[in-house]
């Protein structure tokens, strides 16, 4: 297909004001009658035909203002319907189509998931239900009548409020009519029909409106929906309190389905969720599952204003709703849990996914300028970097300035399909700010590199920071402009306290946030009596790759004393990373890794000692300590090395650092393990979860020594656990560190949870992650296991997705067998579900940085995919860009 370009945008020629849908559900032949109230768009091309999108549709009939349209009046294919010479006035177009939900393996449009009818329309799935101008700037009011066999689908749900329902006399069928008063783009359309259990709760909004909340799940699973309901109510309250956003319908429904291409979908008043992000019980869900459920329930709910009430003009503006809504859900979780720990977790995710994306062939701006397949742009860059950009706006404008901009955005654009420019203009207008340079964050891809060198001038009693920013070339962007980068700063005195920041006259230092705008720039502070240690980019205020002239002693100091928890954590990580890079056999001169290699074991010992100090510090949050103790990931190390990467060397280096930590810190780890033993029934709250996180981190570090007593401890932990967090953590410790105990433990786990697919996903994922040559064969065998299915995205992601994305040594086996296995899986999946296939293929995104043997085999695997017959647009786009 031809690429779509942002600069080619033009308004639609025809608008749709109302959509009346009549859907008669049938597993193989669902009949859809759509009555579209249309009119020519005054901003469109005069006299234009009506051109509607379709995808694999079977057309039955077309009528114009009630009169059947003869074949000469229109041109139809499965992918488009053109009304050739429509009268240029308001009209009603009636279209009848027939579809086969049970044959819909792409899980886009209307499909059946374990016997439940459901829909997924974003981005371009509505065109698989009826012919329609399938673009987000066509907003209409929808009324949906759904009819089904009462036996087969006693529950019938649509967008908005239910206005009518009943039996169809003399038949076994029944119906429901749903009306959504809020104009919306068709990607927010949804319907559900099935046998479902539900839980409900009332909610009263800030202005006293009563809302009925419902969560629908597979029969028998209602008891596991309670946490999601609790998270929903907290989200609704929080959005009122923090953003002034109130809910706007009489009902809000969530449906959990077992077969879903992504996490969840924010359809107006009817969110549809992957059941993985709804269902939780202490026995089946880990602390991480609970945190994800809370975040995703919030995220989809927050879309009601950022995405639904104000939507996107076109798909290039995707970050307008996604980046902003991720920012909002991050803030929600920060308020509900520990803000520093949430920030650390978010930055880890940003670095591992987004920085990796930005450094490879799939790099693209937060707002792309062109795409071939929009489904491939639901990326870490659009979501996570998009959220960072909003966060920087807040840092630059301050709490109140940010809120003023948001208020103006809601006021000015409610009911509209907006653009990134319009969003930024609200912040500029509300604050009298010039955001033109800031806007480059949306247009330039790649992670900016920022080098900061600090100098203390004893004679002048001043401290100077020389800042240099570099923008590296990325695909399609050889040259770039300098960006506006907010660097939060502290100067830490010898006593560990922050010095007052007194900007020297004549510099543009602005308090505690340095606003960097030029390629090179200096900031000077006066009245600095003694040499401080600068703490730069506090809270990760800008998503940049930072290098400094801090010596390892400075980083050790920050790791013990920085009052900014993020940078306290980050100082330890920077040192650990430098050590791991040099231990992986690469220590270029003049880097911190080089210095560490030269410094020998003394520095590693000092690092371990600093981490040990945090471990013993009872004033610190256990969840924070657990983060401090976690060694940078293999992906982080690979990215730091940058080229000629050898995953085996990285794995070995990381393993030996963890073993060293386990050995050196054993007494402290044992104490932490004892101190945080469970003291009552499981509760998913953040404090309890933090204690488990630290206890489990201690368990794992000790077990990584391989000592018999430590393995025995892990085995006992596994056997006595009363919740999934502890049970699964112990199982993973055994799987990774205790080959002799592994199979029996895995089998015990399987037998216990064999009827619970979401738990079995954990079992599949864990086995796919074992860093041993036998794993590939194990994964191959598991693809034939009755618990596995190529048709279910969760199963595929658990087994094959984890093998490709979370097992660097085995995916990148030097013999190329891992690459080949994933390539063949991509080809097989592509015939069934292109979106899931394309997502899996993303695991090759860093292939160019591998050493030559592995690079060669990755390239062969990619070429094999590229040569595959009848590739989907999804896979051919990713493979072409990966090789490009
Ligand atoms: N908006 C959906 C994602 C749709 C993905 C389509 N391929 C979920 C979310 O971000 O909230
Ligand atoms: Zn979203």
TrEMBL record:
Peptidase M1 alanyl aminopeptidase Ig-like fold domain ranges (all copies): 446-548
Obligatory cofactor(s): Zn(2+)
An example Gene Ontology biological process: proteolysis
EC number per UniProt: 3.4.11.2
Keywords of this entry: Aminopeptidase, Hydrolase, Metal-binding, Metalloprotease, Protease, Zinc
Single GO molecular function: zinc ion binding
Domain Peptidase M1 membrane alanine aminopeptidase, residue spans: 227-438
Reactions mediated catalytically: Release of an N-terminal amino acid, Xaa-|-Yaa- from a peptide, amide or arylamide. Xaa is preferably Ala, but may be most amino acids including Pro (slow action). When a terminal hydrophobic residue is followed by a prolyl residue, the two may be released as an intact Xaa-Pro dipeptide
All residue ranges annotated as the Aminopeptidase N-like N-terminal domain in the record: 46-188
Name of the top EC class for this enzyme: hydrolase
Domain Peptidase M1 alanyl aminopeptidase C-terminal: residue ranges: 553-883
Protein name: Aminopeptidase N
Species the sequence originates in: Ancylobacter mangrovi
Source species taxonomy: Bacteria, Pseudomonadati, Pseudomonadota, Alphaproteobacteria, Hyphomicrobiales
Protein encoded by which gene: pepN
